[in-house]
Write a structure and sequence with these properties.
With 350 residues, the chain is an alpha/beta fold. The chain has helices spanning 4-16, 28-41, 60-65, 81-89, 116-119, 125-133, 139-148, 156-162, 175-183, 186-197, 202-214, 219-222, 229-250, 269-279, 304-311, 336-348; strands at residues 20-25, 45-49, 70-74, 94-97, 111-113, 257-262, 284-291, 294-300, 319-322, 326-332. Bound molecules: manganese (II) ion.
Length: 350
């Protein structure tokens, strides 16, 4: 966890920021972290990071365009040196909050916060943001981020008291429990609606962010009106694809390793991987999204961080990393068979 001192420092940065820009990881943890901070101070612009593996230098353009006086980076483990250098040259304060198992940046001017470097814990950034803002009316937003990142937080019961019909009773305080909520409750459905809405066009994402920065309750999202029409349409569209991809991935379940790749207009690998892992907890799950000669891969399983790093070792230009039980990797598509073979060997020797 972050220390009280660190949390106070972040609060002070937020108060000082008059026109901040928030770059956030393009998933529910990133999104709900941004939403909580934005709703807390009532100002600032949010930009989901779609570059992988790092926040690349092109994004600095947005800092200029918006004339930002503060840069926040949420839930993104890697940021390009070029981006950092440009922020530094323009003398803009940078606050970077992350929870991944990575080395801290060397530059002393960066205000870097990561619970992992305090006590090896890795609470989702949305959890940290809830502790920073302390905004009870946004508890549902924090819950969406936490369950999407495999945590049943200490404020779950409070959420359940407030929204009993959206919650699932007494989930175990484990990743399985979090996914039990994610896949078997109304708040889980709302989480998927938001997650899928991040896959929409930039124009529609901007509209969604505006809507979400003003939404009064989780019910606003379920109710179809002019503001939610596109969000729900996107949800139905992606959900159909999601269900059919799930069926394809399930059909590989007689192996210890479920290895499944697909292509198409959007990636929903993390979501697919979480769902398949939830259904087959004893298996290793590897889901790859193929695009333009490259493949982005989500991996789940025991010791998967070690396994992932080992399996990409002899693959040219492959990148990968993440958490103990959940990682991501990227490589050229031609190396997929080799990668699969490496994984199979490592898993067999577990
Ligand atoms: Mn994330």
């Amino acid at each position: 966890m972050l220390t009280e001192k660190q949390i106070n420092e972040i609060r002070e940065h937020l108060e000082k920021a008059q026109n901040p820009i928030f770059f956030f990881d393009n998933d529910n943890d990133g999104l709900t972290s941004y939403l909580q901070l934005r709703r807390h101070i009532g100002r600032g612009k949010g930009v989901p990071i779609r570059s992988f593996p790092d926040l690349n230098a092109d994004y600095f353009r947005r800092v200029k365009e918006l004339n930002s006086d503060y840069v926040f980076i949420l839930d993104k483990p890697i940021v390009s040196d070029e981006f950092l250098q440009q922020v530094h040259e323009d003398n803009i304060p940078l606050v970077w909050i992350d929870h991944h198992d990575v080395e801290p940046p060397k530059q002393e001017w960066i205000n870097y916060y990561n619970p992992f470097h305090n006590d090896k814990t890795s609470e989702p950034v949305s959890y940290l943001c809830y502790k920073i803002t302390n905004k009870k009316e946004d508890i549902w937003i924090a819950i969406i981020g936490c369950i999407s990142d495999a945590l049943v937080p200490d404020f779950y019961e409070e959420f359940q008291e407030k929204y009993p019909e959206l919650a699932k009773d007494n989930p175990e305080k484990s990743p399985t429990g979090a996914f039990d909520v994610l896949f078997n409750s109304e708040i889980g459905k709302i989480a998927r609606i938001l997650d899928f809405s991040l896959k929409d066009s930039i124009t529609n994402v901007v509209k969604m962010l505006k809507f979400m920065s003003e939404a009064k309750s989780p019910y606003d999202i379920l109710e179809e009106d002019s503001r939610t029409k596109q969000i729900l349409a996107k949800y139905y569209e992606i959900n159909e694809k999601y269900q059919s991809l799930l069926n394809e991935a399930r059909s590989q379940s007689d192996n210890k390793l479920i290895f499944f790749t697909y292509g198409g207009p959007f990636s929903i690998s993390a979501n697919l991987a979480n769902r398949i892992k939830y259904e087959f907890p004893e298996k290793y799950v590897v889901i790859g999204f193929k695009k333009e000669g490259f493949v982005n891969i989500s991996l789940r399983g025991i010791n998967i961080r070690t396994i992932t790093l080992e399996a990409i070792k002899d693959i040219p230009n492959a990148t990968g990393g993440g958490h103990k039980m959940a990682t991501g990797a990227r490589m050229a598509e031609e190396y997929l068979p080799q990668f699969k073979e490496n994984l199979q060997k490592l898993i067999d020797s577990q």
